What does this fold into?
Amino acid sequence: MISTKSRSARLGVAAALSAALLTGGTATAFAAPNTVHPAPRPVPHRAPAKSSITFRVRPSSLRSGQRITAAGQGTGLAIGSRVQLQRRIGSRWSSLPASTALRRGGVYSLTTPLSIRGRQILRVLDGTTASSPVTVTVR
It folds into this structure.
């Protein structure tokens, strides 16, 4: 059994420690200097550069097996990234065996023969960025 005297002593020590911790914590909180922080400056938001590809074909009308030259410029695309010439077949795009890398300034040029007769719809693709379609007539 614990005597009343030792219980009172323990209770007194616990109360003194609690009071010291409480007043010590609040005293330092009240003693801290009142520092006013300046409002954060707004950071200008830069929208990601939109990428685009221009595309032109010469000649726009040719004989079967004749070579076409596709040229243009990529904006917002990495130099050295590959552009791929594609042909539309129905509602899908099919890659032709013609691709090249973007050079300094984002320019590109590629040459390939077209042999399927009729109206061909072509575009150039770099990853997810595609040019506007161009129509070529193969006789």
Q: What stands out?
A: The chain has two domains: 1-32, 52-138. The chain has a mean pLDDT of 85. The beta strands are 52-53, 56-58, 61-62, 67-75, 82-89, 92-101, 107-113, 118-126, 129-130, 134-138. Residues 52-138 form a domain with the Immunoglobulin-like fold (CATH 2.60.40.1930).
